[in-house]
Design a protein that fits this description.
Layout lengths: L7 H5 L1 H73 L3 H13 L11 E6 L4 E8 L8 E7 L4 E6 L2 H25 L8 E11 L6 E12 H4 L9 H7 L3 E2 L22 E2 L19 H17 L4 E5 L9 E5 L6 E8 L7 H14 L3 E6 L5 H7 L4 E4 L1 H10 L8 H8 L5
Parallel strand pairs: 2-5, 11-12, 12-13
Antiparallel strand pairs: 1-2, 3-4, 5-6, 6-7, 8-9, 9-10, 10-11
Helix pairs in contact: 2-3, 8-9
């Protein structure tokens, strides 16, 4: 390709021969330069690809390390929960029992809420379990097409049949719930279960919603697990266990629960309203700390009361303990929730979040909520990951207030100047 083509005249005349040699040399030099350019480009591409590969590999390794660390933390948390459950820690038993009940397969239109309490001394689990209202049951029995009228004709179950089905359903749910809790009790932590069946419905006389306990039963594991449920009649079985219920469950006549969840606490004190006195000039970060705790109680009471929950404030102590306790029947957020209020003007440290987590465990609560007028550092948020903790900062607090029709502001600089004191 680059060899000069020497012809007869080229051999006779040196100038022609030299010209052909020069042309061949130029072609070679041009091709050589292009080859070097192509090789350099290939090397550059290879180097770029290698850099991309190294970068991608580094990202993958980091993601892998983060994943392994997160999995290790999750596995450690699970192992800790398992150890707490096997050690019969009340909070672990309650949390485990919630998981058991949440896995129960029921229609979507059935309520899925429950409130639990465990007593270590008697190994008794009390469950306030939401039962479906009769209006939740489908009544359509049959649909026929009438060709002559080109319409559909519906047939519904009779009221007598509906009431009979509803009564049998509630007794079955009650027995099934107790069975699932006893059956899942691998730690042998529960000897007795008290089940209170609650129904929320609308009073036809007043049009207002109400909740009534319409059945209650207390039973020991040894007695209950001997029953052959495949052959037993649900209502007869319930009565044999000395359960109490209204004569006709569909009438929702309330009965006295055999044993109720204790919502009393010596630390609970009378609360007072604060939110109505606020306006857009009220600086939450500078308000009296006791007023702030009452405000937090008031806000969460409005938040939880929509689902039948309640919130109580504890004796003011400024010791970093529990400022309020919420009892929420919701199956996801539900149970006992401890709330701490921090009227701070500086970033909340991770130690406060650790203290909250310890309080959740000590109180046997299902969740902890920390509310501040300031904000949290990255280490605080990192510590809260994977734990039953919710951190609400100042902007989120203002959003909650606005959600319930109250206006205020948070000005940390102004608060620092006004307070001139060590924050609690």
């Amino acid at each position: 390709m680059f060899q000069p083509e020497i012809k007869l005249l080229d051999m006779l005349f040196s100038s022609r021969r030299n010209k052909r040699v020069a042309e061949s040399l130029r072609r070679f030099e041009t091709a050589d330069a292009q080859w070097k350019k192509d090789v350099s480009a290939i090397h550059a591409k290879d180097e770029a690809k290698n850099k991309q590969f190294v970068a991608a590999l580094g990202e993958w390794e980091k993601a892998r390390t983060d994943f392994v660390e997160q999995q290790s933390l999750k596995n450690a948390a699970i192992e800790k929960k398992k150890e707490e459950y096997e050690a019969k820690a009340p909070s672990a038993i309650i949390e485990y029992s919630y998981l058991v009940l949440e896995s129960s397969d029921y229609p979507d239109y059935f309520p899925r809420s429950c409130l639990l309490e465990y007593t270590t001394e008697t190994k008794t689990l009390i469950a306030e379990y939401a039962l479906p209202a009769i209006t939740s049951l489908p009544t359509l029995k049959q649909v026929k097409y009438v060709a002559a009228k080109d319409t559909f004709s519906e047939t519904h179950v009779s009221e007598v049949s509906l009431h009979r089905t509803y009564e049998d359903l509630l007794y079955q749910i009650a027995l099934r719930t107790i069975y699932e809790l006893f059956q899942a009790d691998s730690a042998k932590a529960v000897d007795v279960i008290v089940l209170n069946g609650l129904v929320t419905a609308t009073d036809k006389a007043t049009g207002k919603e109400f909740t009534a306990c319409i059945l209650s039963v207390q039973v020991s594991k040894s007695e209950f697990m001997e029953i052959n449920f495949a052959q037993a009649d649900s209502k007869v079985c319930f009565k044999k266990l000395k359960g109490v219920s209204a004569s006709r469950l569909a009438e929702l006549a309330p009965v006295r629960p055999i044993l109720q969840i204790n919502r009393e606490d010596k630390r609970f004190v009378e609360s007072y309203a604060v939110a109505d006195s606020l306006d857009d000039s009220s600086n939450l970060a500078a308000m009296d700390w006791e007023d702030f705790e009452n405000l937090i109680r008031e806000v969460f009471e409005k938040e939880f009361s929509r689902n039948g929950g309640e919130v109580k404030i504890t004796q003011a102590s400024r010791d970093g303990g529990v400022d309020a306790v919420a009892f929420d029947p919701d199956p996801i957020r539900g149970g006992k929730i401890v709330i701490q209020a921090k009227r701070y003007t500086n970033t909340v440290s991770v130690s406060a979040v650790r203290d909250l987590f310890g309080t959740v465990l000590n109180e046997g609560a299902n969740k902890g909520i920390l509310v501040t007028t300031a904000d949290y550092g990255p280490d605080a948020y990192e510590f809260a990951k994977g734990k039953p903790l919710t951190l609400l900062n100042g902007s989120e607090l203002l959003y909650l207030l606005a959600k319930h029709g109250h206006q205020a502001k948070i000005n940390l600089k102004e608060a620092r100047e006004l307070l001139g004191e060590k924050e609690r």
